[in-house]
Amino acid sequence: MSDESIAGRIEQLVAEEHDLRTREQADSKDEGALEADRERLRAVEVELDRCWDLLRQRRALRSAGADPDDAQVRDSETVERYLQ
Q1: Is 81 part of a structural domain of the chain?
Q2: Which pLDDT does position 84 carry in this prediction?
Q3: How many structural domains comprise the chain?
Q4: DSSP string of 13-74, one letter each residue
Q5: At residue 37, does pLDDT exceed 90?
Q6: How far is it, in rounded angstroms, from Cα 28 to Cα 34?
Q7: N or C terminus: which one in the chain shows less Cβ crowding within 10 Å?
Q8: How many angstroms separate the Cα of 41 from the Cα of each of 27, 32, 38?
Q9: What mean pLDDT do residues 39-53 have?
Q10: Backbone torsion region of residue 16, taken as left when φ is above 0, otherwise alpha when ψ lies between -120 and 50, otherwise beta
């Protein structure tokens, strides 16, 4: 996966995140729809974190003179437990 394809996926996810946040406001009176929006939003946020992590790995490898293709997508458990 190239940096460009990862960045493209990030853009798609950000657009979906914005759409979900807008829809969340519109669905505020429908508990079922609201919960579905929230679940999908959580999934999108995790996927965004994983994409950003992969992109950072690729950049770090490239900076170190290594092959960026050696970067691997980490599982959500690992990525979500990073300390900020």
Answers
A1: no
A2: 56
A3: 1
A4: HHHHHHHHHHHHHHTTT-HHHHHHHHHHHHHHHHHHHHHHHHHHHHHHHHHTTS-GGG--PP
A5: no
A6: 6
A7: C
A8: 13, 14, 5
A9: 95
A10: alpha
User: Across residues 9-30, what is the average pLDDT?
Assistant: 88
Query: Would you say residue 83 lies in a domain?
Result: no
| Cα–Cα distance for residue pair 18/24, rounded to 1 Å | 10
- Token pair in block for residue 11: 């853009």
For 62-75, write each residue's pLDDT tens digit: 999 999 999 999 99
Tokens encoding 17: 């995140």
Question: What is d(CA 21, CA 42) in angstroms, rounded to the nearest whole number?
Answer: 11
> Which residue from 15, 8, 12 is spatially nearest to 55, judged by alpha carbons?
8
Neighbours of 8 (CB within 10 A): 12
Average pLDDT on 4-14 reads 97
